[in-house]
Amino acid sequence: MRKKRLLRHLWLKFPAFLSPLKVTILLMSGIFLAACSDEQGEKKEIVFGLGPSIYVNQVEGGIIPYLEKKGYQVSIKMFSQNSMIPPALKEGAVDVSVHISTANLEEMNRRLGGDAMMVWADTPSAPQTIRSIRHQHIDDIRDGMTIAIPNDPVSSERAARLLEAVGWITLAPEIDVSTFHVNEIKPGSVTPKIVEMESALMLRALPDIDFAVVNGNFVTNAGERIQEGLAIEDSPEEHLVKVAILEKNQDETWAKDIQEAYKSSEFEAFIKADPIYEGLIFPKSWSK
After folding, report:
1. Which residue spans adopt a coiled-coil conformation according to this UniProt entry (predicted)?
2. Which of 9, 106, 210, 222 is the most exposed place for a label (fewest CB within 10 A)?
3. At CA 64, angle to CA 62 and CA 66, rounded to 5?
């Protein structure tokens, strides 16, 4: 009886000019619109987190056009230092980053806590090079000459490996990449003066130092060629730059579309058509 009174009360709430049939149609329309709203509720805005680098050019020229064709609005949030990107990804300030390598992924996940980051796609990666304005050949090295290396552990360990490869310094057989320190560098064929420096400043500092080991993304971003380096890093897989997202987002449509964009023939063609990318290490899946 109570249910009948409630139904009667609900019907009386509708204006008199609406018949029961019209009310039914309106209710069904509302259900349909709600369903459409759920479908339209899929994420269509993507934010990339990037530092000043060649990877900005890759995203702007090769990835954004692909995603825009799929109906996404894509923006780039720039960070002055790469170390600021992982926390932003963890906090949800950005959806995807192009900065992380597998060499420091586990350590960053442990140190930062929160939702875990994961490697999501490969992208052309720039090797480090030894560069100089004062000198024309690596054989010009002498005791006491100043060599600048990056000031973050992962990049500085890479730089030390390159210096070891040309014989200038020596390193212990076992080194923890995530905690590497300049004090672990020992003399090799010479005893150079090793200084640590913010990677983004190295090219501008070249007139004042003898040599610098420069991350390749800053080289190409400055319009210089990787091949112009006095020595080029044979980058191990663990140091190649990767596209990263949060693990919890791996089943999202937008995340899969990002992955698809990086694997696309359009992105490969864009990269290979621009001479500035010569010397970069391409994903193994790309055609030779």
Report:
1. none
2. 9
3. 75
- Residues in the chain, pLDDT under 50: 1-18, 21-39
Give the CA radius of gyration of the chain.
27
Return d(Cα 264, Cα 47) in angstroms, integer.
20
Contact of 124 with 276, CB cutoff 8 Å: no
CA dist list (Å): 287 to 40, 239, 265, 269: 37, 22, 10, 10
pLDDT tens digit sequence for 25-54: 444 444 444 444 344 568 999 999 998 888
- Domains 45-125+239-277 and 129-234 equal at CATH topology level: yes
Number of Cβ atoms within 10 Å of the Cβ of 72: 17
Domain coordinates in residue numbering, the chain: 45-125+239-277, 129-234
| CA angle (122, 127, 129) in 5-degree steps | 170
Within 10 angstroms of residue 159's Cβ, the number of other Cβ atoms is: 28
Cα(256)–Cα(139) distance, integer angstroms? 48
Give the E-state strand segments of the chain in sequence order: 45-50, 73-78, 96-98, 117-122, 129-131, 146-150, 169-170, 186-187, 193-197, 211-214, 231-232, 242-246
The reported pTM is: 0.77
Q: Which residue has the tokens 């995203």?
A: 59
pLDDT tens per residue across span 213-225:
999 988 988 889 9
CATH code of domain 45-125+239-277: 3.40.190.10
Tell me the fold of 129-234.
D-Maltodextrin-Binding Protein; domain 2 (3.40.190)
Structure confidence at residue 251 (pLDDT): 97
**Pairing, β 242-246 against β 117-122:** antiparallel
C-beta separation of 45 from 75 below 8 A: yes
Query: How far apart (Å, rounded) are the C-alpha atoms in residues 101 and 134?
Result: 32
